Backbone:
């Protein structure tokens, strides 16, 4: 049995749509509606957020609010490092996905000599940098930052000197660079990708399991193949963005995309993955209750969370 710990990250400064900072509370309300005492059973800490930055200028247009995101990710990294080093299994409940870079950093700070695998269950690759981002929103950059990827050869933007300096500092957070390798990342249900990201995925022969493969082969096979692909890694982290689910389900998220996996497939896949002994951390991101009716996204997410926790206990 693993000693579980919730780490709550009520931040939305990396997103372009407001409301993801309310995700954790929406999931807790779903728990109450289900009559669940889950949040009494597992200790929890809340990371101080930087959401006040939303009332200021976004600053650098190709990496919006990067200074505040750096501060937040450093806090997340330290909390995750402490949790992992204490032989806990951290479950990160996040707002927008940019804070996942802090999670990755924290695991690597705890185990700087270990090879970390990443299972990224998401409609998006999050492989943009200030050189390629169409929006400047940093929830589209955490995997690029972890890989130390600029993709400057495919630049669409010309970031100013300050942005480049801040981005380089961001990539080197925790003194470990890069934090993961392309060969140690698995994407599942990836389907909304810009050409600049497609270039990187093809160049590095990234491992991608499409939604069609999940449906054709079943979650058991996908989980087994994903874990087998990462067999040289010592540790594996799972990040679950709720927009990996089909837009008919995931209305309550900032960037819903058609042709995703179902809630049942997501839950079954995560339950199967989480059983593996190398899994050291699990994260949920991008629930946005302001875009939803009757808190349905948070309810679906809570059901999945409950299944995962049940497997860990």
Residues:
């Amino acid at each position: 049995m693993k000693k579980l710990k919730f780490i709550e990250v009520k931040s939305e400064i990396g997103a372009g749509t407001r409301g993801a900072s309310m995700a954790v509370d929406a999931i807790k309300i779903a728990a109450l509606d289900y009559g669940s005492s889950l949040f009494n059973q597992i200790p929890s800490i809340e990371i101080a957020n930087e959401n006040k930055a939303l009332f200021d200028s976004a600053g650098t247009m190709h990496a919006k609010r990067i200074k505040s995101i750096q501060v937040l990710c450093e806090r997340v990294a330290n909390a995750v490092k402490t949790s992992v080093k204490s032989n806990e299994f951290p479950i990160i409940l996040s707002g927008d996905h940019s804070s996942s870079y802090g999670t990755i950093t924290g695991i690597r700070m705890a185990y700087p000599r270990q090879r970390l695998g990443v299972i990224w269950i998401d409609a998006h690759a999050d492989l943009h940098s200030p050189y390629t981002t169409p929006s400047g929103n940093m929830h589209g950059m955490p995997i690029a930052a972890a890989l130390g990827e600029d993709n400057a050869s495919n630049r669409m933007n010309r970031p100013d000197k300050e942005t480049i300096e801040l981005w380089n500092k961001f990539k080197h957070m925790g003194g470990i660079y890069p934090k993961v390798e392309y060969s140690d990342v698995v994407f599942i249900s990836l389907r909304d990708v810009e050409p600049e990201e497609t270039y990187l995925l093809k160049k590095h022969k990234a491992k991608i399991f499409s939604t069609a493969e999940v449906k054709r082969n079943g979650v058991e096979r996908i989980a087994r193949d994903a874990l087998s692909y990462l067999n040289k890694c010592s540790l594996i982290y799972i990040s679950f963005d709720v927009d990996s689910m089909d837009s008919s389900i995931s209305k309550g998220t900032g960037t819903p995309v058609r042709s995703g996996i179902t809630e049942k497939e997501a839950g079954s896949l995560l339950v199967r993955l989480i059983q593996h002994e190398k899994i050291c951390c699990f994260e949920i991101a991008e629930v946005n209750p302001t875009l939803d009716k009757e808190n349905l996204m948070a309810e679906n997410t809570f059901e999945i969370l409950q299944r995962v926790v049940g497997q860990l206990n």
User: Anything to note?
Assistant: Strands lie at 3-9, 44-46, 88-94, 116-121, 185-188, 207-209, 235-241, 279-285. The chain has a mean pLDDT of 97.
